[in-house]
Amino acid sequence: MIQLTKDGGVWKVTLARPDKANALTEDMLRQLVDIMSSAHEARAVILTGTGRIFSAGADLDAARAGLATSGLWEALSGAIAGLPGLSVTALNGTLAGGAMGMALACDLRIAVPEARFFYPVMKLGFLPQPSDPMRMSALIGPARTKLILMGGQKINAEEALSFGLIDRIVPADDLLAHANALATDTIAAKPEIAHQIKTMCQ
Q1: CA 190 and chain centroid, separation
Q2: Hey, which residues does 3 pair with through a beta bridge?
Q3: Cα 157 to Cα 136: distance, rounded to the nearest angstrom
Q4: What is the largest CA-CA distance in the chain?
Q5: Helices 142-149 and 131-140: crossing angle, nearest 10°?
Q6: What is the total count of domains within the chain?
Q7: Which domain holds residue 48?
Q8: Helices marked H in the chain — which ranges?
Q9: Which of 34, 49, 95, 135 has the fewest Cβ atoms within 10 angstroms?
Q10: pLDDT band at 196 (very low <50, low <70, confident <90, very high)
Q11: What tens digit of pLDDT does each residue of 133-177 get?
Q12: CATH code of the domain in which 19 resides
């Protein structure tokens, strides 16, 4: 349910459970952690999904069984944040719940116009993973982070762009091509230069 392709230094990681809104099981999370932990040889990583939803977050049955509070979420976002190359989330649709952490940990986020963004963790009786509010607040500020996490607001792509939660809105037909284009200069540069520039931006 996790697909990995490698092409010229670009690793494309695809959530492939469209019949379940790409909701993440424990096995899927473990696969993602393993892939991202081994992706240090990649010059760029593109994270995307199949279907009309990027991810609904944790699989509900798995969440009730304890996945909602698993350390795997934090391990995944930490592995993504630690990648030396460029990381891009190409959001093919709505981003919800714990899956938000993956996107927040990436360097860039692009989304289709139909995407929606929400994180109903408080309503479900759980805390977000520790790094998620910090990364979200760094992007959009404390008040807007509370709007999403505590106010329970679902925001659309235009609002997400104006907040700074995403960096561009891209038509679905061009989404992956645009993600690849964003990685072109990084792939062409010397790896140590690209990594140093990334470090300087943090």
Answers
A1: 25
A2: 14
A3: 16
A4: 46
A5: 130
A6: 1
A7: 2-200
A8: 26-37, 60-64, 72-81, 100-105, 131-140, 142-149, 157-163, 175-188, 191-200
A9: 34
A10: very high
A11: 999 999 999 999 999 999 999 999 999 999 999 999 999 999 999
A12: 3.90.226.10
